[in-house]
Amino acid sequence: MRNSYIVSIILGLSFILFGMTACKSKTGKEKHAGHTQHQLYTCPMHPQIVRDQPGQCPICGMDVVLKDANKELVVDSNITGLTKPVNEHVIASISAIAAERGTRIYTSEVNGVITYDTRHQTSIASRVGGRVERLLIKYNYQPVRKGQLIMEIYSPDLAAAQRELLYVAKNSPEMLSAAKQRLQLLGMQPAQITQVLQSGNVLYRVPVYSNSDGYILEKTAQAQAATPAAAPAASADDGMGGGMQGGGPAPVAGSPAPVASPVLFREGQYVNAGQSLFTIYQSSGLVAEFAFPPQLAARIKKGQKLLFYPANNMKAMQPGNIGLIEPVFRNGQNFTLARIYLQDNQLQVGELLTANIPVIYTGGWWLPKKAVWQLGNRSVVFKKEHNAYVPIEITTTAETKDMIQVSTDISDWKVAANASYLVDSESFIEINKNVQQ
């Protein structure tokens, strides 16, 4: 019995030792299998980057670390929004606003100038061809009187006609009236013809007289004065003392400016028969010309009233009615001239004016000016979509001091309150064409 108990103990110890040996051997095999398993490396900032060997992240350049085998790789689906280009998708916490709608009245402000009325101008031309022997006009806009001597011209044709007159007077008196009429058509005065007949001498200098009272301007200077120069753009005021940009720079009225420049026409120059040499502007009637940009020109009409005053004296404000609307295209600029005809006015030619005209804007939506970004002749707003802003092109119809009228339906949009904060200075805005407008 005792021997049987000892044998049982020995067999039990043997089984225990054999089990421990087998377990140790299995643990070693598992550990060895773990060491021989392939290791993976990932980027701490970009978990989607997985490599089979140490190195650097191709996105941020950080060293990759050993990946935990028991931790699954989780990629945030929102990460795709952060990796889009900034010129077509902007992540920002800037406040968003909605567009306003309604009819608004603004007082538009435009610039103008006092000029001569072209309906009352006259032209001085030479009736015969010849050489200028004497010129009495020294500078442009020199005042002249009707009948005043302007210049004297030597003409071989006129001298020959005078010799013919003397010959006819002696040999064919019945043809004398026809010879006198010919000289009158060539520019000679009846008193001069009588002088030739009485003295028997030919007048080699034919005088040219002024045919009107006013201010004289040579033709070459008139062509230079008609070139428009850039002027401040039209603006609008909402009645609170502010002005508005009205669609880009508008030119000043292209009329002669009263500059007393020297006359380029010189004695000794030759002129042709019928050549226009000078223009005389009468000072009895003046015109106030105002330049309207295209956006504002479509809202004015003939007979419309406006208030205007000299640029340096707002107290001298006076009313006026638009008498003529003339579309003009000069030097690559498109604008519209509106004329107000003045009578018995104390304003001087060349005096700068400022005019105020009320304009009613109906329809459309209104956004603050800073919410719209200008890309040349295109306008862009940043529409809020989820947590990002997407640039979308819109169509604008009017622009005031602080607001812009939009014809695109943006009634249910939320747009960035300040578009300039979302513009990347190193890239162009790529407008999303797929967004429903």
From TrEMBL:
The keyword Transport applies. Keywords: Transport. Transmembrane segments: none annotated. Residues 239-249 have a biased composition (Gly residues). Residues 228-252 are annotated as: Disordered. InterPro entries: 3HB_CusB, HMBD, MFP_Cation_Efflux. One of its GO terms (cellular component) is cell envelope. One of its GO terms (molecular function) is metal ion binding. Residues 228-238 have a biased composition (Low complexity). Residues 157-202 form the CusB-like three alpha-helical bundle domain. Residues 41-63 form the Heavy metal binding domain. It comes from the Bacteria. The keyword Transport applies. One of its GO terms (biological process) is plasma membrane copper ion transport. This is HlyD family secretion protein.
